[in-house]
Amino acid sequence: MKLNIIRTILIIALIGTFSTIFGFSNQDSKTSGGISQKVAEFVIKFIPSIQQAERNQREEVIDRIESVIRKIAHFSIYTLVGFLLMSLMGTYKIKEINQIGTSLIIGVIYASTDEIHQAFIPGRGPQITDVILDSLGVLTGIFISMLLIETIRRITKKKYDNMNIKHLN
Fold first, then answer.
1. What is the 3-state secondary structure (H, E, C) of the chain?
2. Whole-angstrom Cα distance, residue 67 to residue 129?
3. How does pLDDT run across 15-41, given as a tens digit for each residue?
């Protein structure tokens, strides 16, 4: 029963994350770029040397920062995808290598279809570099999930071992 609740929560979180990605990818280039630009402008507010620079220099910096922000956003949201997928796979009694493979395949397929989807959005287009970056994010999320699961297992085992030692005394 408890396992089904965890699985349901993870599936809902995955659907929410996939929907968020779809929503961002469904934005035309002007809308998408506008969000990244606002984040970049927010970031430079905290850097006095950029604030004091000439307007064209500030705009160049904003463009560079905007590009980095977009890549960080890609990597981060797909790290979440990898984490959620591997966490979900971890609730099933299948070999760890199969959990990793299944999580990675699903993540890469979603990243690929997301880029194909962008081919149909005005001003947007698919980029293989984004699929690679997204896939690296998925892989990172998988490893973070594995580390977390292993840490929980060790803590639980240690707690269980301590309980058994107390019962023996």
1. CHHHHHHHHHHHHHHHHHHHHHHHHCCCHHHHHHHHHHHHHHHHCCCHHHHCCCHHHHHHHHHHHHHHHHHHHHHHHHHHHHHHHHHHHCCCCCCHHHHHHHHHHHHHHHHHHHHHHHCCCCCCCCCHHHHHHHHHHHHHHHHHHHHHHHHHHHHHHHHHHHHHHHHHC
2. 13
3. 999 999 999 999 988 888 788 888 888
Fill in the amino acid letter for 58: R
Distance of alpha carbon 2 from alpha carbon 45, whole angstroms = 47
Task: Quote the pLDDT of residue 73.
Answer: 92
Q: Does residue 10 carry a pLDDT above 90?
A: yes
Q: In angstroms, rounded to a whole number, what is the distance separating the alpha carbons of residues 112 and 81?
A: 14
CA distances to 87, 144, 147, 148, 149 from 154, rounded to whole Å, are 16, 15, 11, 10, 9
Domain membership of residue 116 as a residue range: 2-168
What is the number of structural domains in the chain?
1
pLDDT value of position 115: 95
The sign of the CA dihedral 144, 68, 78, 96 is negative
